[in-house]
Automatic annotation (TrEMBL):
The gene is PAP28. Residues 120-395 form the Calcineurin-like phosphoesterase domain. Its cofactor is Zn(2+). Keywords: Glycoprotein, Iron, Metal-binding, Secreted, Signal, Zinc. Its main location: secreted. One of its GO terms (cellular component) is extracellular region. It comes from Salvia divinorum (Maria pastora). This is Inactive purple acid phosphatase 28. Coiled coil: none annotated. It is found in: Secreted. One of its GO terms (molecular function) is metal ion binding. Belongs to the metallophosphoesterase superfamily. Purple acid phosphatase family. Homodimer.
Length: 469
């Protein structure tokens, strides 16, 4: 064996610090056999007999290997330091939460209620088909309009509509983003809904058949929508507890994501200030399905219709005070509180017809499911739904009646969705008006609608009355 003591005492003073001594010990231990191969058999015998001179012969070799090993350690430390620096400056800020900049969702003022002037205005936005902002070109516009046309045209249209109409609520009826061309679903939604979030107006959305084609599932999309500023969107519905009417319980085993209802209270200071006078249903009409080997659009399922019937019944059970008001007119019961419904894909009855009292343009064949799940039958039977607002078919913008209920298209809003060159993008406005009593506002008396097109003046077209008490 090598005489380790002779090595220690013959090492130059310049390397006699603790760390280097430890390095040399490790080097000596690991390279013992190789060191022995560098001496002759007779020298090896003398080493075993304790001849320190021979041990000193191998010292330069050990020192050289020790220095090489130290260089390796220093190189490793340098690499680790560089990696740590890159992580600190570039990687960690993107992967970790910056608690200084983190904030909670900006919540809208609730409950929703009519204005002091007895009105409640809703802006319907159908089929924005948002992609990647200014990188996404427009579709179906005139050649003279194509240069520089992008998703930002949709953004400007929404901003102008909000400024002009000053709605109390905005309802987005699906295909909010065009998933197949949206590189990042979350980023596209932040841009698409940016104008309404910036405005601070309460809003809600349902999904269409294209939203989930990017980087998020339908459940993830609705969850994300529910967390956005001033959003009232909900992933799952809830109903009143059968025991405690002031509590809400989740609805189990319901199809889809984005089934919920929002209740609008009466005007402040009125007899209905703390009561529901208008109800809004939101339903997930799905995306695509296969029926008997045939591809078709999805449809609203029985579990969703059962939930809607339950909500309608609960509203009816919560009757308002039937005593006469100070004006001498009877107050309205919950049984006649009107409701509106919002979803994306039209129902088969719209294709089968006949649709009566048409106001607007019927430009394209109604694209819907092959499955008739009884939506119209349900809406007629509950009796509270006065009008339904849909999207999906961009170049249809009409309202027409089926079974005494109005079905209204929003008209294509977004510039990245298909359309007809020269036919302006458009949005729909819905206005509910309360009945004016001698001393106070009453229940909803009238529901009107009109559209505005994206021209220089945001021209108002096709104004009509949908329902009147």
């Amino acid at each position: 064996m090598l005489d380790m003591s002779s090595i220690f005492f013959d090492v130059p003073d310049s390397i006699l610090d603790a760390q280097k001594m430890l390095d040399l010990i490790v080097a000596c231990s690991k390279r013992k056999q190789e060191s022995q191969r560098n001496i002759s058999p007779s020298q090896a015998k003398r080493v075993e007999q304790g001849d320190s001179a021979v041990g000193q012969l191998s010292l330069p070799i050990l020192m050289e290997e020790g220095v090489t090993w130290i260089h390796s350690i220093l190189y490793l430390v340098l690499v680790c330091s560089a990696v740590h620096l890159l992580d600190t400056l570039l990687v960690s800020p993107k992967l970790s939460i910056n608690h200084q900049n983190a904030r909670i969702k900006k919540a809208p003022s609730t409950p929703l209620r009519f204005r002091a002037d007895g009105t409640f205005k809703i802006l319907q936005v159908a089929d924005m088909h948002f992609g990647n902002g200014n990188l996404t070109p427009c579709r179906d516009v005139l050649d003279s309009e194509y240069a520089g046309c992008s998703d930002l045209n949709t953004t400007r249209f929404l901003e102008r509509m909000i400024r002009l109409e000053k709605p109390d609520f905005v309802a987005f009826t699906g295909d909010n983003i065009f998933g197949s061309t949206a590189n990042d679903a979350a980023e596209s939604m932040l841009q698409a809904f940016g104008p309404v979030m910036k405005s601070g107006i309460p809003w809600a959305a349902v999904l269409g058949n294209h939203d989930q084609e990017s980087t998020m599932t339908r459940e993830e999309l609705m969850s994300f929508l529910s967390l956005m500023d001033f959003s009232l969107s909900q992933t799952f519905p809830s109903v009143e507890d059968s025991v405690h009417s002031d509590k809400q319980v989740p609805v189990p085993n319901i199809d889809g994501f984005g089934n919920y209802d929002l209740r609008i209270w009466g005007a402040p200071g009125s007899n209905f200030a703390n009561s529901t006078v208008l109800n809004l249903y939101f339903l997930d009409s799905g995306d695509r399905a296969v029926v008997n080997g045939v591809r078709t659009y999805d449809w609203i399922k029985e579990s969703q219709l059962s939930w809607l019937r339950n909500v309608s019944q609960k509203l009816e059970e919560r009757k308002l005070d039937s005593d006469k008001s100070a004006s001498g007119t009877p107050q309205y019961s919950a049984a006649v509180v009107p409701s509106l419904a919002f979803f994306h894909i039209p129902i088969p009855e719209m294709r089968e017809g006949p649709i009566c009292n048409l106001v607007g343009r019927y430009r394209e064949y109604t694209a819907c499911s092959l499955v008739n799940s009884g939506v119209l039958k349900t809406l007629v039977s509950v009796g509270d739904v006065k009008a339904v607002f849909i999207g999906h078919d961009h170049t249809n913008d009409f309202c027409g009646t089926l079974g005494g209920i109005w079905f209204c298209y929003g008209g294509g809003f977004g510039y990245h969705g298909y359309g007809v060159a020269g036919w302006a993008r458009r949005g729909r406005v819905i206005l509910a008006e309360l009945e004016k009593g001698e001393q106070s506002w009453g229940g909803v008396k009238m529901i009107r609608t009109w559209k505005r097109i994206d021209d220089e003046a945001l021209s108002k077209i096709d104004e009509q009355v949908l329902w009147e008490r």
